[in-house]
Each structure stands twice: as C-alpha cells, then as structure tokens.
C-alpha cells in the first residue's frame, strides 16, 4: 500500500533524490520539476533542480503543486486544474516514491487524445512494489467525488507495467492513438 499525501515540505530531500533518479534513468519528464515557459498572458513558472536545494524555492514548488487545483491560479493557456498527490512509502515516513495527478477536465486536445485525466510516475528504486497500482486505485473514488464519471488513462505503447496497472484498476482498452494505449475507467460517480 502507498499513502497519498498533499505535496509538503517534509518531502524536500527525498523529492530531490527521486528527481536525480528520474534524471539518471533518462526519465526527467517524470521528475516533478515544473517548467512552464511564459506563453500569452501567462508569465511562466520555472523551477530548476539546483534552485530547489533552497528550502524557500522548494516551498514555492509545493505551493505551485497544491495551488494547481485552484481555478484562480495562473497556468499556461488551455491547461486545466489538477490535484496532485505525492506517494509516500508507508514503511518509510516522509519518503517520496512518486506522484499521481488528477486532471479535473480533459477539454484540451492534448489531454483528450493522449494525456488523459491521470498522470503518475514512480521513482525507479520504488518500482515493482505496487505503488502506482495502489495510488490509481485510491484516485478513482476521488475522481468520482469530483463528478468525473469516466477517467481516461493512457500509457506509452511499450510500457507494459503501466498497462497492467491501468487494467488492474478496471481500465477498459479503447485502442491506440499517437503512440499511446488508451483506457477508460468507470468511477461509479
């Protein structure tokens, strides 16, 4: 089992260690370090691994992740609100093992085709322990509470582990599109 926690300062060191693991594995897209360049009226939000060593900068990242659920917070054009949880190893309190997010809407063309409602990533050293599957299991009823009846969850065509995770949580395979496997999960909303 994995614990879902709101992003918090207590994860500072383990979050950075996980970011380093993702980078070493060539998976920096999953490192959780936000990099949204300025676009239109959006001023941009950019963090760097080096700057996040500073507690104040990490606190700013935490505030960004928590605040992303609020419609009033700035975001790139067309981006939706999302709730982020950080996965915590129950046997090692304050140990960040990954993250999972629930996008509140998938109106954006990228989300409705390949991104979906849910995104997750588990640091390489914590994989094959059921954390992703358990996190997704916990997020499904949270989506139902938001009134989301069906979740679109996608994964890369060659990501067999992620496909199994989705299928273990009731994902029904719809097909392939743009290099992604597409699944739908009924939330019971």
From TrEMBL:
Extract the InterPro entries matched here.
Acyl_CoA_acyltransferase, GNAT_dom
Residue ranges occupied by any N-acetyltransferase domain in the UniProt entry? 46-189
Which superkingdom heads the taxonomic lineage of this protein's source? Bacteria
Enumerate the CDD domains for this protein. NAT_SF
Q: Which Gene3D superfamilies match?
A: 3.40.630.30
Return the PANTHER family for the record: ACETYLTRANSFERASE
The name this protein goes by in its record: GNAT family N-acetyltransferase
């Amino acid at each position: 089992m994995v614990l879902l926690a709101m992003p918090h300062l207590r994860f500072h060191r383990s979050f950075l260690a996980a970011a380093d693991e993702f980078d070493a594995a060539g998976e920096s897209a999953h490192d959780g370090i936000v990099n949204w360049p300025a676009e239109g009226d959006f001023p941009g939000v950019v963090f760097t691994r080096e700057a996040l060593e500073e507690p104040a900068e990490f606190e700013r990242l935490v505030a960004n992740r928590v605040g992303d659920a609020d419609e009033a917070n700035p975001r790139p054009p067309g981006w939706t609100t999302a709730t982020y949880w950080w996965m915590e190893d129950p046997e090692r309190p304050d140990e960040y093992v990954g993250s999972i997010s629930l996008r509140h809407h998938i109106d954006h063309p990228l989300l409705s085709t390949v991104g979906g409602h849910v995104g997750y990533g588990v640091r390489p050293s914590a994989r094959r322990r059921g954390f992703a599957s358990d996190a997704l299991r916990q997020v499904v009823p949270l989506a139902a509470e938001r009134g989301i009846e069906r979740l679109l969850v996608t994964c890369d065509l060659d990501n067999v582990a992620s496909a199994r995770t989705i299928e273990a949580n009731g994902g029904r395979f719809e097909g392939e599109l743009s290099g992604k496997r597409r699944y739908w999960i009924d939330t019971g909303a």
